Structures are given as structure tokens and as C-alpha cells.
Amino acid sequence: MASEPTYQRVAAELRAAIASGDLDERLPSLAVLAQRYGVTSDIARSAVDVLRAEGLVTTRRGSGVYVRRFERITRRSPERLGRQYRASGRAVQDSDTGPRLRVVDIVVSEQPASSEVAEALGVEAGQSVLTRSRRFLVDNRPVQLATSFLPLDIAGGTRIAYTDAGPGGTYARLAELGHEPVRFTERLTARAPNPDEVERLDLGSSIGSLVLDIVRFASTEVGRCVEVNQMTLDATAYILEYDFMA
Amino acid sequence: MASEPTYQRVAAELRAAIASGDLDERLPSLAVLAQRYGVTSDIARSAVDVLRAEGLVTTRRGSGVYVRRFERITRRSPERLGRQYRASGRAVQDSDTGPRLRVVDIVVSEQPASSEVAEALGVEAGQSVLTRSRRFLVDNRPVQLATSFLPLDIAGGTRIAYTDAGPGGTYARLAELGHEPVRFTERLTARAPNPDEVERLDLGSSIGSLVLDIVRFASTEVGRCVEVNQMTLDATAYILEYDFMA
DNA sequence: GAGTGGTCTAGACCACTCC
DNA sequence: GAGTGGTCTAGACCACTCT
To answer: What sign does the CA torsion over B15, B21, B25, B26 have?
Structure first.
């Protein structure tokens, strides 16, 4: 054993092959890699694990290891939440990705609020709030899960309670209702994905992958929090950009 | 094999034992864990890998597996960059952690700028810039590496070029020099750590751990970028909070 | 020197995909 | 059914820490 573990050496060679374009689309099978590099298939898998953690490849059980040609999505705040985007009929997320985006699995329901959400929205703990959950695909790759929570006394019975919230999205409707969000706080943590997130974000395995957990609180001019949005992002799919003044 | 892999089951039990306080300080050795759960030591290690990715434990080769009792650091922007912090003689990072913070390995030098830094600072590519690098420990745990780049025509020969930049830190000195930073852009990505970062941040292994890479551009009232700060954070050590208006 | 985490082998079985 | 990724065993060796 040199100072560097074998699986790191194999990973480095595969990384170079991907960067140079020698490997595109798909990698040789683990068995072939193992033979080629003179290692066990377990070690070949460890090498692939490294690349997967870097977002360079994605693995599909029973199928193969595939190269991920994917440019990270740049997600700009606060520009993306400005009025100009909504005015043109675009929702928040369009600003980052344009036509490559697809929103699927939209589910709207009323659910009891968690204590964190209840406190933020100013309702009794356990009381129902409007819940909008959905999944974002970019170039058919799932990159984000999101669930919004809104107080029923504002959003109940409005267009917001429909799966299609209309042009400009939820925030445009809130503005029309006299509750335009103008101030935002985003709280960001990196953590290991749970099994459900591994599946819905196509992360392959919980080992070696992390997600970014963002909770955004949206408040109106008068300081009322009118939406809590919990987002789970594939950590390798994004660049987050924040602009602010001292 | 049930639907859930064995190493996940073992990880779940260890996680519960840590949460309940049954395991504190230190875990039994891998050999003991292997025997107790009736698995190979390799599998016991996989379980520990899961916990390490979650930031629950840290491993020390030749020594043991240790429980990480650590509350995440909340890093608030833009408050932390405001004048009030500097006025009281505190530097930026103090706002998040107070007396638990230690800054070590401060190295100040002049280095040729990378193309990204050169472009931002408005100097010729390859020209020298002032470079301040340092490492942050909180409760003796390394949590962040940072390197600042400043143009020599502003910072050269000033207090900023000393390892101790004085009360209020670099930004206070820039303000005194008539180049107070007032506008900031932070660009954040999650990525796998390189071997140097694994060592300096005590991440144990590059497998299963991610870092947050933040590049901050600090600009003055007249729109000149006077500092680029590249930070590498242990992803499991932080909560990042951003406040902004639409 | 004893004990520990980290890496690796050779071989096995499983779940899954693709033809 | 053949091939693929994912998990697991039993045993080995190494680098390191702690005494």
C-alpha cells in the first residue's frame, strides 16, 4: 500500500478519464474495473463511491454506473425572489433553470403544523395549515424536494390551494391577497439524507451523499410570516449565491 | 437480509444509543461492535461511516471512535458583517461563536492571484495579492479554513499585512483606509474535501464527508471589490442563516 | 506490545435490470 | 437468464495510538 489507498488511486484515474472525455455515458462494470485495476470488486465500488459523493457519477442497481454530465444550478438570492420575476408570470424557481425545469408530484393538503412551523406562522401547535409539496427535476434529474406551509386563514380556499397556483406562483397570489412577502430568512444546514430522500432524489445510497436542508421564512411588510418553505436539495446539484448589504 | 441493510440497522441502534445517552464519550471498538452485532468488523465500520457522515461521531486511527457532542454553529448573515460588531472590537467570526473560538495557523504572504481572484479584485492575472490564511477552532474542534485575498495597493504595508490585524479585524482596517466593505456576495457549494482539507479539518476520511465551500466577495460603496474570502467549512458543524429583502 | 481504525482479498449471495 | 450494482463474510495486513 502506497501512502494513498488503492481505491483513491482508482478513483483518481476514473476521475481523469471522465474529465478528459475518455469515459462518457457509462463506466465499465465493477467486475471489469476490478479486473482492469487488479482489485476486488468491493474496492472498485469504493472508488465509485468516491466519485458518486463528488456528483460525478450516478449508480443504478442492476444497470450500471453512469457519468453525470450536469452543470450545477446557480440559485441566486435575493434576485430570484424579486417582483420582476413574478410580474413576468414566472415562479421563483424558474429564474435559476428556465425551461430545463419540471415540477412534479405536486400534492396540496391540509396537515397539522409541526411546532416549528406553527410558531413561525403564529398558529396553535397541531392546528392544520395548508401544505404544498412538490419535486423539482432539471434535465430530468431530480434535484430538489420542497414543502410549503401557509396559514389557512390566508391561503385557504384561494388559488394557492390548487395544484396549479397560477402565473407567478404562490408568492404572486399572496401579493394579490395583500400579503406580499418582502423579507426572507433562509436557514441552511447540510445533513445526511433519509431513505425517502435517497429514493426521491435518486442519490443511489445514503452513504457518501449529503443534502442541503433549507428552511425559508417569508414575511410581509408588517412582519407577519406568511409562508414556511422546507427544501431539500441534492448537495451536488447547486451553487447557492447570496447577495446582501452590511 | 431484511429490506434494510445490516450496516444501516447497526447504525440506527448506535444512533439511538448515542441519542439516549447510553453511549457517551467513546464507542466500543470495532471488534467489539462486530462481535456484539454478529457482523464483520468491515460492516461495523460501514455503520460507523454512516454516523460520521452525519457528524455524530469522529474517528481517530489507532485510538477509537468518539461521540461528538457539539452544537452546530449558527452563522448569521448579514448581521455578522455589520458595523456594530467591528465597533466593539470584535472580528466577523466572533459574532457566531464568542469565546469558544480560536484562530490558529495564521499565515500572511504575497501570492500570485488565481484568475478568479484577479478578475474580482481587478488586477492582472498572476499578479501578487495579499493573502491571509487561517484556521478556526471552536471548542478545540477545527471547523473552518479561510483564505482572504486583498489588493496590495490597498492592504500592502498596513496593519492588514500583520498576523494580528487589530481590533475589529481586516474589515475595520479597510474601513479606516476609506474602503469600507458594504456589499457582499457569497457563493456556496457543497463538495467532497481534498486530502489536505480532510487533515486540517479532522474529517477522518474523505469518504462520506462533505465540506461547504464559500467564496465571499466584499465590495465598497463605489462598487470596488476589496476582498475575496475563500472559506471551507466542515458541513456538519454549521447552520447558515441568510436574511434578505425582495 | 497490545489494541485500534483503515484497507484489502477471495468468494458468496441478493435484488435488480435488460434482453 | 445473464449481467449488474449492493451487501456481507472470514481472514489478513498495515499504520497508528496508548501504555
So the answer is: negative
